[in-house]
Amino acid sequence: MKIQSTGLYQEMQAMASEAGRVRPQDPNKLPVQATAATSSAQFGDLLSDALNTVAGLQRDAKEKVTAVEMGDRSVSLAEAMIAKNKSSVAFDATMQVRNKLIEAYKDIMSMPV
């Protein structure tokens, strides 16, 4: 899974600074925080790209394992095993992210309003 940490970190900083901004409108009203409509689309794109990367790794691993099983000399057993382990690690990481997202969703839904 190829996620660029610097871009993600910068995006998180930008969202944190955006969330910290307050627009005073009326002194009698509570301040309203500014929200960025594009942050959810960017997160969705990031998540979609990550899932596509994992799917690509799995396809590549399957192709290499099949090539080794069929006796193709252009693909070595080591290449197939490395591709299989890469796809396994990427899938495990994806499952961990999914579990954290579900846990966060459940925490938010159980909050009293």
Automatic annotation (TrEMBL):
Gene Ontology molecular-function annotations: cytoskeletal motor activity; structural molecule activity
GO biological process, one term: bacterial-type flagellum-dependent cell motility
Subcellular compartments: Bacterial flagellum basal body
Any matching Pfam family: FliE
Key words, A-Z: Bacterial flagellum, Cell projection, Cilium, Flagellum
Region: Disordered, residue numbers: 15-35
Keyword Transferase (UniProt): no
UniProt key word 4Fe-4S: no
Gene Ontology CC: one annotated term: bacterial-type flagellum basal body
Family recorded in the similarity comment: Belongs to the FliE family.
Name recorded for this polypeptide: Flagellar hook-basal body complex protein FliE
Organism name: Pseudoalteromonas rubra
